[in-house]
Amino acid sequence: MATAPLVDGYGRVHRDLRISVTDRCNFRCTYCMPAEGMQWLPRDELLTFEEITRVARVCVEVLGIDAIRLTGGEPTVRAHLAVLVRQLAGLREGGRPLDLAMTTNGVTLRTLAGDLRTAGLDRVNVSLDTLRPDRFRELTRRDQLDSVLDGIDAAAAAGFAPVKVNTVVMRGVNDDELVDLAAFGRDRGVTVRFIEWMPLDADQRWEGDAVVGQDEIVAAIGAVFPLDPVAARGSAPAERFVYRDGQGEIGVIPSVTHAFCGSCDRIRLTADGQLRSCLFAVDEVDLRALLRSGADDAELAAAVRGCVADKWAGHMIGQVTFIRPRRSMSQIGG
Ligand code: SAM
To answer: Can you give the pTM of this predicted structure?
Structure first.
């Protein structure tokens, strides 16, 4: 089958596939999930590892995807995740480049990091929104800060490089810890990426005033540890800033205050096999139905192309035309 890049109507070439392997999570972060009452997808609606790998293979071999990130829910609660990683790593056959990464809350990395690394995972991002045990308990509704910190060390020890830490910043919740988190990153040699809170929480408590924007984040950290911007951002979601003293860098993902939709190169596969051209998309393309009705690779590729062709210019957060997607963050895959 002829290969051709995955281009949308705005000329954006798509190379990055985010795959959610489960909608379940072992944390209940207040800015993402409710304390109770999430409706989990029935088991038979989840894509199997073979189905996920088939979609990924078509994306990599036919459509030019060269980066895959596993996410969820919490990807590590899916049993035998290393088996899936090994299958996906097999797509590098013949020397094809494929960056394999995972976003995780890190709580089980002490146990899993080695196996995931051996299976072919290249990189991990660990989510950590606070360094204070009491605040961690409130935010995640779990008492497991030590396990997450241990998981970050385990990831580095297993050879993941770089290990990045993702921090969602919320006004009045953890915005007083920006400098502490930056110092943590400098000490441990990890890049902390500060994420603006987005309107994707299941409880629908998000409000614009609670967003701590990129400029404020950079000013607060830069006042203590001077920072310089890195010019070339390309299609990466994070704006990078290096410490002037050479001790590493931070990233800021400014989805709300400096949206970067114009350079977006990402598509997303939900755990139940729905393809989304945007985190905030209101429409999905049902790849699971195609997979389970005997579609061949050409039909799958055409469906992915169709989804990307229909991609909109941007998400419009903050404008009257903004529509919240039906699914919340953990159901889509962050
Ligand atoms: N469970 C994994 C984890 O904790 O990283 C992967 C899934 S989680 C949905 C992916 C990322 O999305 C995490 O860094 C999380 O903090 C972030 N996130 C969740 N809800 C968010 C929101 N409403 N706005 C911005 N980021 C959010």
So the answer is: 0.97
